[in-house]
């Protein structure tokens, strides 16, 4: 276990030394400042009726989190894609792998370090966001912590997948494939919702399958649910007929079977990554 | 190496302060073995024992039945042309790649055994260290990975830096190091914690002449304290200077093994000056080697080992008068080229 810890700390130190952490910090400040300004303008818009301003807040928060979940997922892909392959190419990994450490420990340590960075990043931005929105408008989403946790889970899912790809593919290929799969999974989710709205069986099935193959979009929908006050769901259902097909809406809480599957999926992909790296010739 | 140079082992890493100063005067303490496994294994087992090792990469056969045995405490040179399979063999021994066939034992355990790796120092052929760490941090990282007891880290790190002549640069980032300095650091990492076996894959490829000399000094110091050294190289001079025994490998198999003197004497040549040979001598003597007249002399090359006295005896028995027999010194390079051609 101590080797895992050594590698995890090394990964974090690399992120600090190579200014990844500084970049994250800068992005956080920019995102939160912009959103603070936006929320301030929105909630102080004199043209709004009180009902409109009421609805605008949850919608704006969901949109912000959607954007941020994208940033988290793409960052996850970007930091995971070079983690193994680039170190093999440069010869750094050979110096570590010749030591009395299991390859699995090296990979798991990297995963732990990168996931830790992602967790800190998600927590800090989400926390600041909640504070800024509250300051600007007095609005607080029902359960921002749960929403942030699911956004993080979405990022970790992609992180783990790209890390697996990175044990076999070049950094470039792993990153590009990871991002593309993420996009496809998102589209799969939308397709499934459309299938549900218009009752097209094939589309609904496709959406389901994609949510099980890569649970990023499913986890995003879980996150959305915790950003929606219950009156908001009722109102949307009553006022907007096509709302079921809206990727920024969740009408029900994530199901336990699905969350269990997402956890199993994560473990499976991680184990696959460990095995693949064990067998990789250096 | 002069003390003055040792003391000045400075920024440019001029001069490794290696041994004799280092090893001979006891600066290297008697081996403190912190590995229980070290005592457990059979003391008589060779440091490296490979049997019919094979490795094939898709279409390329990198190793084609390599067998060899390296005794404990010897400096073993692994010589061969580019692409002969030297690096592949080393990676197999360390468990970085898996063999397609055959087996190898290192320090009494199967190649790649996790616990045994604690007792091995390795300088890879192509490597980099984390460019964003300082030299000192790289060494500490390897102390940690090697599970050296923490109280020994500081001493081990300082020793390593001093031995490879990087004392003044320990706190600089590795990314700012020149190629030769990176190789020096690599050597320092390989020496950390007094390993029983040090595997060096072309340790001097990036070094200046001073550095090369220093590496030889370091290798001799390692031998003096009983460390086994496995040295991959295609520099014959390097092998001639430090190796007790060498194996010459070509296309993935060993074509000759032995001490350098043995290798060179394996196919001796002599220059003869002979008079008064009876008719028909040719039939009796042609088999000794390849004969070439050279003025008043006869050159007999490529003889079987130890046949020179027989040759002289036969000449005398045929009535010849042997005026002079001069053994021809074959250089290692000539012998090396010859061996590669034979295959
Ligand atoms: N990862 C690999 N994939 C495919 N072929 C490889 C790989 N590594 C080595 N080879 C092939 O195996 C053979 C032996 O290579 P190796 O690196 O062991 O040679 P070497 O003796 O170390 O040569 P050099 O003196 O140039 O370092 C070469 O033909 C090489 O092309
Ligand atoms: Mg090589």
Small-molecule binders: adenosine-5'-triphosphate, magnesium ion
Largest sheet of chain A at a glance? none
The total number of structural domains of chain B is 2
**CATH top level class name of the largest domain in chain B:** Alpha Beta
CATH homology superfamily name of the largest domain in chain B: P-loop containing nucleotide triphosphate hydrolases
Could you give the count of β-strands of chain B? 14
Shape of chain A: globular
Describe the fold and architecture.
- The complex is a heterodimer of chains A (282) and B (343).
- Chain A has one domain (2-278).
- In chain A, helix 3 packs antiparallel against helix 8 (171-197), helix 6 runs antiparallel to helix 7 and helix 8 runs antiparallel to helix 9 (201-213).
- In chain A, 42% of the residues are buried.
- The model of chain A has no long low-confidence stretch (mean pLDDT 90).
- Helix content of chain A is 80%, strand content 0%.
- With 282 residues, chain A is mostly helical.
- Chain B folds into 2 domains: 7-262, 3-Layer(aba) Sandwich (Rossmann fold), CATH 3.40.50.300; 265-342, Alpha-Beta Plaits (2-Layer Sandwich), CATH 3.30.70.
- Chain B contains 12 helices and 14 strands.
- In chain B, helix 4 packs across helix 5 and helix 5 packs across helix 6.
- Chain B starts with a helix and ends with a helix.
- The chains are: A mainly alpha (282), B alpha/beta (343).
- Chain A binds chain B through residues 2-3, 6, 10, 13-14, 17-18, 90-92, 94-102, 281-282, and chain B through 91, 94-98, 114-115, 117-118, 120, 122, 124, 126-130, 132-133, 141-142, 144-147, 186, 189.
- The structure holds adenosine-5'-triphosphate and magnesium ion.
- Residues 86-87, 125 of chain B line the site of magnesium ion.
Short note summarizing the structure:
With 282 residues, chain A is mainly alpha-helical. Chain A is built from 12 helices and no strands.
């Amino acid at each position: 276990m101590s080797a895992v810890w050594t590698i995890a700390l090394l990964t974090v130190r690399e992120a600090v030394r190579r200014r990844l952490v500084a970049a994250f910090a800068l992005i956080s400040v920019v995102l939160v400042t912009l959103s603070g300004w936006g929320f301030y303008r929105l909630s102080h818009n004199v043209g709004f009726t009180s009902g409109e301003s009421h609805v605008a807040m949850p919608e704006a928060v969901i949109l912000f989190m959607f954007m941020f979940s994208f940033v988290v997922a793409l960052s996850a892909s970007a930091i995971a894609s070079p983690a193994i392959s680039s170190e093999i190419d440069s010869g750094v990994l050979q110096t570590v792998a010749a030591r009395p450490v299991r390859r699995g420990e090296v990979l798991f340590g990297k995963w732990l370090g990168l996931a830790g960075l992602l967790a800190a990043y998600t927590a800090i931005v989400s926390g600041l966001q909640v504070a800024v929105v509250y300051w600007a408008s007095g609005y607080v989403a029902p359960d921002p912590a749960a929403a942030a946790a699911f956004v993080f889970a979405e990022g970790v899912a992609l992180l783990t997948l790209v890390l697996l790809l990175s044990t076999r593919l070049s950094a470039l290929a792993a990153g590009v494939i990871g991002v593309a799969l993420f996009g496809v999974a998102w589209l799969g989710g939308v397709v499934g919702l459309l299938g549900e709205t218009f009752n097209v069986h094939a589309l609904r099935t496709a959406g389901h399958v994609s949510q099980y193959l890569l649970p990023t979009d499913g986890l995003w929908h879980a996150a959305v649910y915790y950003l929606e006050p219950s009156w908001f769901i009722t109102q949307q259902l009553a006022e907007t007929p096509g709302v079921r097909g809206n990727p920024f809406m969740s009408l029900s809480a994530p199901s336990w079977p699905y969350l269990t599957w997402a956890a199993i999926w994560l473990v499976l992909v991680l184990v696959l990554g460990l095995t693949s790296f064990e067998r990789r010739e250096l | 190496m002069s003390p003055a140079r040792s003391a000045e082992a400075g920024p440019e890493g001029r001069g490794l302060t290696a041994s004799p100063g280092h090893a001979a005067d006891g600066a290297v303490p008697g081996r403190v073995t912190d590995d229980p496994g070290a005592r457990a294994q059979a003391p008589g087992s060779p440091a490296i024992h490979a049997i019919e090792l094979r490795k094939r990469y898709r279409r390329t056969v990198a190793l084609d039945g390599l067998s060899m045995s390296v005794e404990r405490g010897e400096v073993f040179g692994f010589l061969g042309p580019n692409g002969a399979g030297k690096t592949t063999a080393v990676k197999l021994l360390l468990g970085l790649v898996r063999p397609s066939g055959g087996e190898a034992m290192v320090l009494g355990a199967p190649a790649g055994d996790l616990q045994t790796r604690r007792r091995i120092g390795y300088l890879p052929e192509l490597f980099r260290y984390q460019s964003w760490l300082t030299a000192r941090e790289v060494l500490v990282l390897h102390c940690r990975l090697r599970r050296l007891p923490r109280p020994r880290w500081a001493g081990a790190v300082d020793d390593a830096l001093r031995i490879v002549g990087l004392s003044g640069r320990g706190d600089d980032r590795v990314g700012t190091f020149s190629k030769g300095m990176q190789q020096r650091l690599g050597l320092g990492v390989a020496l950390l914690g007094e390993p029983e076996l040090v595997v060096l894959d072309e340790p001097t490829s990036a070094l200046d002449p001073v550095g090369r000399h220093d590496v030889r000094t370091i290798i001799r110091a390692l031998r003096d304290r009983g460390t086994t050294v496995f040295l991959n190289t295609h520099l014959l001079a390097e092998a001639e200077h430090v190796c007790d025994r060498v194996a010459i490998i070509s296309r993935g198999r060993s074509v000759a093994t032995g001490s350098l003197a043995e290798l060179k004497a394996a196919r001796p040549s002599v220059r003869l000056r002979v008079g008064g040979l009876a008719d028909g001598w040719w039939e009796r003597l042609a088999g000794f080697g390849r004969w070439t007249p050279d003025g008043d002399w006869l050159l007999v090359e490529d003889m079987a080992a130890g046949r020179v006295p027989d040759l002289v005896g036969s000449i005398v028995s045929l009535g010849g008068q042997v005026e002079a027999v001069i053994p021809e010194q074959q250089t290692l390079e000539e012998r090396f080229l010859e061996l590669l051609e034979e295959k």
